[in-house]
Amino acid sequence: MRRIAAALTLFTRIPVWRWTDIPAAAYSSAVVFWPLTGWITGGVAALTVWLLSMVMPLAPAVACALVARLLLTGALHEDGLADFCDGFGGGRDKEGILRIMKDSHIGTYGVIGLICWFLLVWSLLSSLSADLAALTLLAADPMAKCCASQLTHLLPYARPEGAKNKISYSRMSVGDFLFNVMCGILPIVPLLLVAPLTICAVVFPIAAMALMVRMMRRRIGGYTGDCCGATFLVCEASMLVGIIISINL
Question: Which H helix or E strand runs over 198?
Fold first, then answer.
C-alpha cells in the first residue's frame, strides 16, 4: 500500500502523504504502480468528457477533460515533455542536453512541443463520439504509463549525480513487471468491447517507446525523469493515433 501511496504522490496532487507515512524506499520501487495511477488520472479525464458532453459540444468537453487531468497531475508530464523537447532540440551533446533539461525555464522547442501535443490529442479525441473519447482516455493513459515505466528496465539513469528529486527507481521483479503490464492493459478491455479492432492500437505506443529508448540511448546514454514524462505523452498520443486508424479501418 505504501508503494501505491508513493506512486499517487508522485503522479497526482492527491495529498496521500497526509494520511500515511511514505518511506523513501517506497518511491524507488513505486514504478510498478505507474499504470495503476493511470486508472485514476485517465478515469478522471474520461468521466469529465463523458459528463460534459451531455451539456456542451464534444470539442470543449475534451478540452475541459485535458485541463481536469492537468489539475490532477500538476502538469508533471507536460513539464517533462517541455524539458525533453528543449534539451533534445537545443542540446548538441549529452552534457548540453542534460544541462538544458535541468533548466526550469521553457524554451522555443518546449513551447512548440506542448502546442503540437495538445492540438494533436485534442483534435483526435474530438473526432470520436463522446463514449469512444471517454473509453479512449481511460485506455490510453494507463497503457502509456506502462510503456514509460519500461525506461527503468531498458536504460540506466543518465545523470551521474542522480535525480533532481533524489529518487532512484529500482528495477521491477518478474511478478511486479507482470502486474505492471496487467494494469496497463486491463483498461483497454471496455474499449475493445465497443471497437474490437482497436487492439491493433497497442502496437503504436510500444513502437513509440522503442523509438524514444533508441534516441535516449544514442544521445544521452540513459533516461531522466523528464524523459519518462515525455515518453508517457508521446506514447499516449501514439495510441490515440492508432485507435483512430483502427476505428476507421
Answer: none
